[in-house]
């Protein structure tokens, strides 16, 4: 009998909903294969724009209860994805959503970007030492789309993973341009889609040539959709009769639900990573993928 450590995947996200939007299918896939998946969320998402009218009173201009409410949404999403290990960086409520660049929320004394980078890095490093993930995922240096908290999450993750030994690979979660464009083209075929279609290049994405790893999430799209639905203050999910699906954030722009999630290797060996974050050369759980 051979005992091998289970693969451990840790993802660092800025706000509740990012884990589902960016990496929901990947989380569900690895969790389904028995990997230990840890999600670290850096803020409570207090500044998120609330979609349902009846919940807008939770926002920072009124009751300022959105962060606590979103903890419940996040819990629902984690359950849908199979995540049993969720943490808030520094403990729940330590750092606040900084809001979009240039807003008053950037000035809040507890906001994530005004926090001490070393303290934040130490908080993540402590989790990394405890969980001992072989693979860590966060955003690229642009934070995927420029949100200050996403950029800070990137900085904190790159700094913490550099100081903790035993991490084989760090990846950036990205949207691949050509793949996204194909998905958007598919949306144009849909009738009665309740969202506005994006203009060419309107949705942020990276050049496909940068992609190192494509994780097939076909079988886990239903879990991803359930997780997105759990974030009802932030995301609207639409599904047609034939199963076609799309979602929109508060901007009302339609986004396709793609069957692949894409990553760029930021640190570590590129061997065997075309379709597996753990470098198994194939599906997770096969050919030694993810075991060590
Ligand atoms: Zn976010």
From TrEMBL:
Keyword Metal-binding among record annotations: yes
Q: GO terms for molecular function, please?
A: N-acetylglucosaminylinositol deacetylase activity; zinc ion binding
Annotated SUPFAM superfamilies: LmbE-like
Gene Ontology biological-process entries: mycothiol biosynthetic process
Function recorded in the entry: Catalyzes the deacetylation of 1D-myo-inositol 2-acetamido-2-deoxy-alpha-D-glucopyranoside (GlcNAc-Ins) in the mycothiol biosynthesis pathway.
Q: Which family does the record assign?
A: Belongs to the MshB deacetylase family.
**What's the protein here called?**
1D-myo-inositol 2-acetamido-2-deoxy-alpha-D-glucopyranoside deacetylase
- The organism named in the record is Crossiella cryophila
């Amino acid at each position: 009998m051979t005992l091998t450590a289970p693969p451990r995947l840790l993802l660092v996200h800025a706000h509740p909903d990012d884990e589902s939007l960016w990496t929901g299918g990947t989380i569900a896939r690895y969790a389904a294969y028995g990997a230990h998946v840890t999600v670290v969320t850096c803020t409570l998402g207090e500044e998120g724009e609330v979609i349902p009218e009846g919940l807008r009173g939770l926002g920072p201009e009124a009751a300022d209860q959105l962060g606590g409410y979103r903890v419940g949404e996040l819990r629902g999403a984690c359950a849908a994805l199979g995540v049993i290990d969720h943490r808030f960086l520094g403990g729940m409520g330590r750092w606040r959503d900084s809001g979009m660049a240039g807003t008053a929320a950037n000035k809040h004394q507890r906001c994530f970007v005004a926090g001490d980078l070393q303290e934040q890095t130490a908080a993540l490093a402590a989790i990394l030492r405890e969980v001992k993930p072989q693979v860590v995922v966060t955003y690229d240096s642009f934070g995927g789309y420029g949100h200050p908290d996403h950029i800070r999450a990137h900085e904190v993750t790159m700094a913490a993973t550099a100081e903790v030994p035993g991490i084989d690979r760090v990846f950036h979660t990205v949207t691949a341009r050509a793949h996204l464009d194909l998905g958007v083209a598919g949306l144009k075929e849909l009738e009665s889609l309740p969202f506005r279609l994006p203009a060419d290049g309107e949705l942020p994405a990276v050049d496909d040539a940068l992609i190192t790893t494509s994780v097939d999430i076909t079988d886990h799209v239903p879990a991803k959709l359930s997780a997105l639905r759990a974030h009802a203050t932030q995301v609207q999910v639409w599904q047609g009769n034939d199963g076609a699906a799309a979602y929109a954030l508060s901007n009302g722009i339609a986004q396709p639900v793609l069957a692949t999630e894409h990553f760029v290797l930021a640190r570590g060996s590129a061997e065997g990573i075309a379709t597996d974050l753990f470098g198994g050369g194939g599906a997770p759980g096969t050919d030694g993928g993810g075991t060590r």
